[in-house]
Design goal:
The protein is an alpha/beta fold and about 230 residues long. The N terminus is likely disordered.
Length: about 230
């Protein structure tokens, strides 16, 4: 996406009321050749999201005029732009609320620069993959959505229909944290939203089939107390 000067730098919108954080992010992200726009409140952030059309939004939850969850909800009414929450709130309930509202990822302040950049790159790659051919690839894992075929390092893997649907859901949101509730609702229906053991069993079975070491998964990563993400492996 071109910025005001006609370049093709990825656009990042930072919505955070802390000047020190905005300055830090400006320094870090500008050095990585991102085009930056800043907003210090929820209402100004919503206006900037509509006008600036960012490729990724970095959002603080503790805004002075509008809670970050409300900002996520309003953006999701018209856009699927990746939203990465940057917040001092550490409780699992806060993370789940943000992710269930539509956030793609969640980092607790203070965070490492390398981790932030990795999450941003994953969000950008996911957006590109969603608009390209229906073949997902991460490291040695390949998923052909047309043929419903899964392979690891070139060897086809046989999955049950439920395991395939679970892997497909994670792959189509690769890099994004999906909560237990979101996955259960999508795969098994609303009646199963309070039965996380069903999900754990199927994730365990899926890992045994696609992971070289299921006890140290490379692809399906657990977000403790929150959910799972399918990691994009180079």
């Amino acid at each position: 996406m071109a910025d005001e000067k006609g370049s093709l730098l990825p656009r990042i919108l930072v919505i955070d009321d802390e000047l020190a954080i905005r300055r830090f992010l400006h320094t870090v992200l500008s050095s990585e050749e991102f085009s930056l726009h800043e907003a210090e409140g929820g209402h100004s952030g919503l206006a900037a999201a509509a006008a600036f059309r960012p490729d990724v939004i970095l959002l603080d939850l503790g805004l002075p005029d509008l809670d970050g969850i409300e900002v996520i909800t309003r953006i999701r009414e018209w856009s699927q732009v990746p939203i990465i929450v940057l917040s001092v709130r550490e409780r699992e309930d806060d993370k789940i609320a943000a992710l269930d509202a539509g956030a793609d990822d969640y980092l607790t302040k203070p965070f490492g620069v390398g981790e932030l950049l990795a999450r941003i790159r994953a969000s950008l790659r996911r957006t590109l993959q969603q608009t390209s051919e229906p073949i997902f690839s991460s490291g040695g894992l390949t998923l052909d959505l047309n043929l419903r075929q899964v392979a690891v390092n070139g060897t086809e893997i046989q999955l049950t229909p439920t395991e395939y649907d679970l892997l497909k859901l994670l792959a189509t949101h690769a890099g994004k944290v999906l909560t237990h509730s979101q996955i259960l609702k999508q795969i098994w229906g609303i009646a199963y939203q309070e039965q996380p053991h069903v999900l754990r069993v199927n994730v365990s079975n899926l890992r045994r089939k696609i992971e070289a070491d299921p006890s140290r998964p490379r692809y399906i990563v657990t977000e403790p107390g929150v959910g799972y993400r399918l990691k994009i492996v180079e």
